Amino acid sequence: MCLVLLCDEEQRVLRSFTAPGSCPYCGGKVVATDVESACSFCFRPLCFRTRRKFICTLCRCRLVSLPTLPPPYTHEHLTASDV
Ligand SMILES: [Zn+2]
């Protein structure tokens, strides 16, 4: 009996677009890329995960963005709501 375990991760770029904000290191444009990684077992897909990667187009730095964060450079202490 021969049992072959095949589990490889396949990555597929779904789309990429220019993300709001700029690179904190060099100020370059940031491109967001949605990557779908499928973990397949014996050529049957087991799980799909979609991750969003942020990469600076100038310095190629990998960036992390918090999805709930408003666009950068807003400062909550500057709002007049707590008067
Ligand atoms: Zn940069």
TrEMBL record:
It comes from Musa troglodytarum (fe'i banana). This is Methionyl-tRNA synthetase.
